[in-house]
Amino acid sequence: MSQPILTLDFLDTPAPTAPADHAHTPSGEVRVSAATSTGRQRKLYIESYGCQMNFSDSEIVSSILFQEGFDTTEQLEGADLVLLNTCSIREKAEQTVRMRLSQINGHKKRNPGLLVGVLGCMAERLKTKFLEEEKIVDLVVGPDAYRDLPRLIQEVDGGQKAVNVLLSREETYADITPVRLNSNGVSAFVSIMRGCDNMCSFCVVPFTRGRERSRDAHSIVRECQDLITAGYKEVTMLGQNVDSYKWASEDGLEQVNFAQLLERVALLSPELRVRFSTSHPKDITDEVLHTMARHDNICNYIHLPAQSGNSRVLKLMNRTYDRAWYEDRVQAIRRILGDDCAISTDMISGFCSETEEEHQDTLSLMEQVQYDMAYMFFYSERPGTLAARKLEDDVPLEVKKRRLAEVIAVQQKHNLIRNQRAIGQVHKVLVENFSKRSDDFLSGRNDQNKVVIFPKENFQKGDYVNILVHDCTASTLFGNAV
Ligand code: SAH
Ligand code: SF4
Ligand code: F3S
């Protein structure tokens, strides 16, 4: 299956430092369905915005609709049904979808039979308002209602508009085998939980994704085993807060926490690389870190979003940890996994009432930790969140942008410093694709999630190759096989 990826420029951050397929943080990437071409009657074109959770959900949606007689296609032209799986995390993410809908309107004029649906977080946030505001939308479906798609599509086929935005306390789609749309056949995403019970004051996710629930541990392990059987070499376990994963069998006799789940998956095969995202600083335990240390195939990379380096701002953000706690968690990582474990973060600049000194604290935390990578945003007020209701969005836009630029500049420096450490070392790289620039080069990632480019020779996708790194930029390592 090919994997067309369009990158649209709707980021706050130019994000020169972020690999496109990072698990939980909206990277500004848009993913388009690949073609399944099995001769089914109707064609589904699905475009996914936002985070990996959405990309992973689109694979579940495709699986449900595959059963209903839909092949996926990578072209909007000729599709019978267009679905946009949307993101609400920042205002810009929503604007991008609105713009896309007006483009699709043009297609619909040429092809009046085309059905248009909106899925995901924006669907959940706006509900029926979508139908009022965007006349071309036929279908609005929230993240917990995808099993209802066949019925909703029947309604739309019958000439009506259809909406289901009910959130669920149980739905995990545990039994649905995703159609791997976003996959290179090497690396796959596996959702281990849905929703979020944290109430970070800036964040819309608890409203769009509902209550936190953990998926049956056995179904997760089974999905990973099936991926291994199908030739996959890497899984990334997804959740908004993987460290609060908690599942118990119905009789209560079997209880599984995240460290134990991680271990079960790691034990499936030493050839399988295991990644996960996102780790919440308040919940990441030493037990998880020791499990990582015990298993070579659990990658030495932790995405541990700080959001701010200042304790007062963290309190306003309702992150439930302060700077000292965060520092302690970083020290635990360094103590248990050593300095080679890569750490990345998300940072928000210009949150409500953030002062210049408090912004400096974010820079000083960055200097202290020296992140390998970061996703950086300026604060964007989201309707309905705690911050929108209780706090004033009072940092002027140009100040937010200037602070963000300072945060990005510091991170660029650290990206380079952390990458330079690899020069002269041999890194085990899992080959994922051809390099974007040339088919004579391959691209893969090392244990620390850094992109490594090297001459193709006779290596193939899915191979593990030992690469002697001889050069780097802030975003990429370059080397040769040894
Ligand atoms: N569950 C993850 C975050 C998911 S959202 C966690 O807790 O770390 C991804 C990132 O988007 C967040 O970490 C935050 O940095 C950013 N973000 C969320 N809401 C935002 C807002 N209103 N304005 C700007 N950035 C925001
Ligand atoms: Fe949002 Fe906080 Fe939940 Fe992350 S942990 S999804 S930032 S509410
Ligand atoms: Fe993800 Fe955006 Fe929803 S970041 S959870 S798609 S709001």
Separation, N- and C-terminal Cα atoms: 30 Å
Shape designation: globular
CATH third-tier fold name of the largest domain = pyruvate-formate lyase- activating enzyme
Bound molecules: S-adenosyl-L-homocysteine, iron/sulfur cluster, FE3-S4 cluster
Topology, number of strands: 23
Q: Please indicate the count of domains.
A: 3
Helix tally? 14
Strand content: 15-25%
The portion of residues assigned to helices is: 25-40%
What does this structure look like?
With 482 residues, this protein is of the alpha/beta class. The chain folds into 3 domains: 21-164, 3-Layer(aba) Sandwich (Rossmann fold), CATH 3.40.50.12160; 187-420, pyruvate-formate lyase- activating enzyme; 426-481, Beta Barrel (OB fold (Dihydrolipoamide Acetyltransferase, E2P)). It contains 14 helices and 23 strands. It has helices at residues 52-67, 91-110, 120-126, 129-133, 149-157, 205-209, 217-229, 258-266, 286-294, 311-316, 323-337, 356-369, 386-390, 397-420; strands at residues 5-7, 29-32, 42-48, 70-72, 81-86, 115-119, 139-141, 162-164, 187-191, 193-194, 213-214, 234-238, 246-248, 255-257, 273-277, 301-303, 342-349, 373-378, 426-434, 441-445, 451-455, 464-472, 476-481. Strands 1, 2, 3, 4, 5, 6, 7 and 8 form an 8-stranded mixed β-sheet that branches. Strands 19-20-21-23-22 form a 5-stranded mixed barrel. Helix 9 packs parallel to helix 11 (323-337) and helix 12 runs parallel beside helix 14 (397-420). Mean pLDDT is 92; it is low at 1-24. Bound molecules: S-adenosyl-L-homocysteine (SAH), iron/sulfur cluster (SF4) and FE3-S4 cluster. FE3-S4 cluster is lined by residues 26, 50-51, 53-54, 87-89, 120-121, 204-205, 208-209. Residues 24-25, 89-90, 202-203, 205, 240-241, 278, 280, 305, 307, 346, 348, 377, 379-380, 382 line the site of S-adenosyl-L-homocysteine. Catalyzes the methylthiolation of N6-(dimethylallyl)adenosine (i(6)A), leading to the formation of 2-methylthio-N6-(dimethylallyl)adenosine (ms(2)i(6)A) at position 37 in tRNAs that read codons beginning with uridine.
